[in-house]
Structure formats: C-alpha cells, structure tokens
Amino acid sequence: MSGDSSRDRGPGRPAPASAAGSAARSPAGSGPARGAGGRPGRRGRVAALGLAVAALALAAGCAGGLTTDHPVAGAPAPGTTGRPGGSSAPAGSPAAAPLAASTPERLDIPAIGVDTSLMRLGLAADGTVQVPPIAANAPAGWYDGSVTPGERGSSVILGHVTVGRYGDGVFLRLGHLAAGDRVEVSRADGTTADFTVTSAHRYTKSSFPDQQVYGPNPQPVLRLVTCAGAPNAATHSYPDNLVVTAVLTGSTGQGG
User: Fold this and answer.
1) Which residues lie across from 200 on neighbouring strands?
2) Which of 22, 37, 68, 246 has the most C-beta neighbours closer than 10 Å?
3) Is the pTM value of this prediction over 0.85?
C-alpha cells in the first residue's frame, strides 16, 4: 500500500450478505471454532475459510476480487502449471507428505530477502479478514481460518507491498519470485516446512479466482498474497493482486 496510511487498504474484505450470510456480521469474538490448543478445529477452519472467500470479494485491498479462471494480460508466467492457483510439484522435487498442524512463527524467502515473524490474522467483527498493521516493519500474517503451513490444503499468508508513509512493505519484492525458489516456514513444534514456488499469477480485482486460491487443495500448498499494479493516486488502492503458490517439498526438525 502507499500514500496516507489512513487511506491504505489491506487484504480484508466486507463480506456480501448473499455469500457470507449473517456470519459475516457476527459480533467481536465470534470467530472460527477452536480445537485443542486454541487453534481452529477442522470444521471451524472450513467454515471460516468459506467466509473469508466471500469476505475477500469486494473491497480494494491486497487480496480478493470476483472469481474467474483467467489471469490478467501481462501477468507473470506460471511455473510448472498453467492453471491459476495451480499446485503441481516442481520437476525433480516431488510433493512431500503433509505435516501435522502447528502454528507458523516465521517466514523466510531467501531469493527476495524476506525474513519476517508471522502474526496471527482472523476475522474482524465486521466480517473482514484482519490484516497486518500499516506500520513500520509490519510483519506478514497467517490467516488462521486456513490450515497451518505444511498441512494438507491451502495455507494463506498475507503481507503489504507498501505501508503508507512508512515505505516498503514486507512483500515489496514478492513479484520477483520464480518457479523453483524456496520458501521456509518455521513452526511452533520445532519443524520448518520447506516449500518450492510453482507459480505466480497477477489478477485484476474483478477477476480474482477466489475458490482456486483460498479453497481446498489435495496437497500441502502455501499461498502468498499481496497487492500489485500502480496504485491509484486518489484512493491509494492497488488495481491488482499477486498470488504466489508454493508446494511443500520437505521439512526439517522434529515436531513435539
């Protein structure tokens, strides 16, 4: 995001009543159902993810838009798959077996110099997805309505490309990633989930493939989401979204 921080918009989206129903207007504290240890139970995560897909559909922030199968013209070329949001493992690096659930703590992307802690993002009382703050050195955030990185399914991490008057955001160079680049997520159980980038797609806000990006996946997949395109000088919003997809290809450490 850029410009006056009071007008910058993050990935949160107001949920349309027709898609999200009354759950989008739940009072504060009524987020996803939680399992043991305070993390969302499976049913709670599925319900929250469905709400998030709807909640990411309207406003002009870092993620979301209406569903389509077509990336915008001039989008970065996909990696090993031509399907938007595709998750095929890279050649020579078969997808690894899913890991047990464990809360993510840090994100490292050596190719673009990202080394950030991960804050936990849920749903706000108005049904929008919480976003990292517009602040100096704001970290990226893991949306806790999605699976934890390394579990089977789509795990979603969101970050700002710019942070208003504070300058560059943590995902400023996300669009520089290429197929084969490594992404590492350190987890609370002592393991590090190792992902390999397979594709990068840029979409207009009106052609964002919600279900393909945020929906279920048979493999352990990581989605990195930020803004893209030239910001509007009047609204300080970005016209496009960038989604980088990476597939779990290994892990180190030992879970407790």
Assistant:
1) 244
2) 246
3) no
Q: Residue 183 has what DSSP assignment?
A: E
Q: pLDDT (tens digit, 0 to 9) for every residue of the chain, 256 residues total?
A: 444 433 344 444 333 322 222 222 223 333 333 344 445 455 444 444 444 443 443 233 443 322 222 333 333 333 323 344 456 666 556 789 999 999 999 999 999 999 999 999 998 887 767 889 999 999 999 999 999 999 999 999 999 999 888 999 999 999 999 999 999 999 999 999 999 999 999 988 778 787 887 788 999 999 999 988 888 888 778 888 899 999 999 999 987 5
Please tell me the total count of domains within the chain: 1
Which of 156, 188, 186 has the alpha carbon at shortest distance from 38?
188
Which element (helix H / strand E) includes 107?
strand 104-109
Kind plus residue range of the DSSP H or E element containing 108: strand 104-109
Domain CATH for 237:
2.40.260.10
Query: Which structural domain range is residue 162 located in?
Result: 17-252
Report d(CA 88, CA 157) in Å as an integer. Answer: 19
Single-letter amino acid code for the residue at 214: Y
d(CA 190, CA 253): 6
